[in-house]
Amino acid sequence: MLKGKTIVVTGAASGIGERTAELLAERGAEVISVDIHQPPRPVGRVVTADLSDKASIDRLVEALPAGLHGLANIAGLPPTRPAQAVVAVNLVGLKYLTTRLVPKLADGASIVNLASLAGLGWADPAAKAAIDASAELDFGDVAAFCAKYGIEGARSYFFSKEALIVWTMRNRWTWRARGIRMNAVSPGPVQTPILKDFLETLGARAEEDMRTMDRPGRPQDIAPVVAFLLSDDSAWIRGTNVPVDGGMYSNVLCQMHGF
Ligand code: NAI
């Protein structure tokens, strides 16, 4: 299924990205692992890059081969980090890497973005102005953008994921002529080094969520879904957001709509 495919995985040094890189390699893909840190158990070729830095992304794109079959955008910062850094890595850097890399993707390639259950508010009218304004957001403008739209503290994380889900949907057909498609995966709370950051930030709400859930997710719950979206088995899935959260999204929707 993934044999013969060369796939770039960002965030490959930890958590969901690390498990995804391992699984793709187990299933026969050539993996190129990208992270700001050296992976403790490197999978495939490793390229170090800082995805909050335009020049670093340019160097990464130069270093990558042409004819790539997949890009898994998994690197991300949690809500405890400075708002500007969160927006730069989770949104601006991800979008810049993706658009810069498209010319090096093979026809029929698949792009998968790690969003989050935290992005479920993307359709809230209150979020729309900032999401719209982020369409052309560049690295140098992040500080002014965050100030203008009141994106501070943990809001940066929610905003970055809302905007990422919308960007994924908006680009459902951008590269359709070449068969290149893009989808998002939205996990609920997953047991990785950043879970404690979420619990810290969300406080009582996170505790309530954790009580509702039977268990937190594990990287091995998420990686196979990313692998499926990277495979040709999902060829007609385009521009969508797949929740992988033990039922949490359905739970929120039922509560929201009174079912
Ligand atoms: P993690 O902290 O275990 O892994 C994130 C990886 O991204 C790390 O290896 C880190 O070095 C890398 N990274 C961070 N900044 C970078 C930069 N500037 N340049 C290059 N690499 C950078 O986190 P986890 O949990 O595996 O998260 C992966 C993705 O899943 C993130 O996008 C996160 O927002 C998302 N997610 C995580 C959830 C969770 O509960 N753990 C829930 C929903 C979504």
The portion of residues assigned to helices is 40-55%
Number of helices: 10
Q: In order across it, which strands form the biggest sheet? A: 3-2-1-4-5-6-7
Q: Please name the CATH topology.
A: Rossmann fold
Q: In whole angstroms, how far apart are the ends? A: 39 Å
> What is the CATH architecture term?
3-Layer(aba) Sandwich
CATH superfamily: NAD(P)-binding Rossmann-like Domain
Overall geometry comes to: globular
Largest sheet: 7 strands, parallel
Radius of gyration: 17 Å
- Tell me the strand percentage band: 15-25%
Number of strands: 7
| CATH class category name | Alpha Beta
Q: Which small molecules are bound? A: 1,4-dihydronicotinamide adenine dinucleotide
* SS class: alpha/beta
Give, in order, the helices and strands. Answer: EHEEHEHEHHHEHHHEH
| Overall tally of structural domains | 1
Uncertain residue ranges: none
Summed over residues and divided by their number, the pLDDT gives a mean of 96
